[in-house]
């Protein structure tokens, strides 16, 4: 039990940077959720139940568009499918004798950042280390949402509009650096932008709801990029 506590504390310490990053991003999500008509409790519950920035931001657009539950479910399935792959990979680092309830609790906290930290640890992954990561990262995401949603009810409309624009600046800051180093990625981003513009303005395509637009563009563009430009695994010839 003492060893579990040590691993939990180590995980919590490693989770501090993740929690701080989540606090900043989820604050923006909370503001946008408030602008989409969600109450503070609704926004907080949404973050606590999902813990996925891309999925939650996409969900707000679908909610505002009044799309169906089927479109919402399909959109979330496509956007968050990567977590299935992450969970499969992470399960290989767990003790085969680990009880099912530990596996379920660990799977709840599988995010891009938590997965990256967990999978980089040498040897077998102890679930209490994952719980330590989650104990800091997830509250940071939920609390940031709470602050953002609460601010959305209090801040002036002009300031809220400026903060919403800042979100797109954050996306550009994430996308541009890797795109500058990878021409294929830059091309995929450009194609995605052009297709998104076409779906927005062309007569027939613009009639498709926003939820199905996301599904179609994600499957078509990501699938085409994976087929045309497969990523080769690094091989060690030493």
> SSE order in H/E notation?
HHHHHHHHHHH
Alpha-carbon distance between the two ends: 42 Å
Q: What is the count of DSSP helices, taking H or I runs of 4+ residues? A: 11
| Structure class | mainly alpha
For the biggest sheet, the summary is: none
Radius of gyration: 20 Å
Helix content: over 70%
How confident is the prediction overall: mean pLDDT?
Answer: 82
Percent of residues in β-strands: under 5%
- Low-pLDDT residue intervals, each spanning 5 or more residues: 233-238
| Overall geometry | globular
Give a structural overview.
This protein has 238 residues and is mainly α. It is built from eleven helices and no strands. Residues 233-238 have low confidence and may be disordered.
Describe the secondary structure blueprint for this structure.
Layout: H1 2-35, H2 40-50, H3 53-65, H4 69-79, H5 82-91, H6 100-108, H7 112-119, H8 127-154, H9 157-181, H10 183-201, H11 210-228
Helix pairs in contact: 1-2, 1-3, 1-8, 1-9, 2-8, 3-4, 4-11, 5-7, 9-10, 10-11
Outline of this structure?
With 238 residues, the protein is an all-alpha fold. The chain contains eleven helices and no strands.
């Amino acid at each position: 039990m003492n060893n579990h506590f040590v691993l939990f504390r180590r995980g919590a310490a490693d989770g501090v940077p993740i929690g701080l990053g989540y606090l900043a991003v989820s604050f923006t999500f909370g503001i946008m959720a408030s602008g989409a008509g969600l109450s503070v409790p609704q926004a907080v519950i949404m973050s606590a139940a999902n813990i996925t920035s891309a999925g939650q931001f996409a969900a707000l657009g679908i909610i505002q568009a009044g799309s169906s539950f089927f479109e919402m479910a399909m959109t979330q399935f496509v956007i968050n499918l990567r977590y299935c792959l992450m969970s499969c990979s992470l399960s290989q680092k767990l003790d085969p004798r680990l009880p099912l309830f530990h596996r379920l609790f660990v799977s709840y906290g599988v995010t891009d950042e938590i997965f990256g930290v967990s999978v980089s640890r040498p040897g077998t992954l102890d679930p209490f280390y994952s719980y330590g990561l989650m104990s800091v990262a997830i509250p940071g995401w939920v609390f940031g949402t709470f602050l953002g949603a609460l601010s959305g009810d209090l801040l002036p409309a002009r300031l809220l509009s400026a903060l919403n624009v800042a979100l797109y600046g954050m996306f550009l800051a994430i996308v541009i650096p890797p795109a500058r180093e990878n021409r294929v990625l830059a091309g995929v981003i450009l194609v995605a932008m052009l297709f998104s513009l076409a779906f927005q303005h062309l007569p027939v395509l613009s009639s498709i709801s926003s939820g199905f637009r996301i599904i179609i563009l994600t499957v078509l563009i990501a699938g085409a990029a994976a087929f045309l430009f497969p990523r080769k695994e690094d091989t060690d010839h030493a």
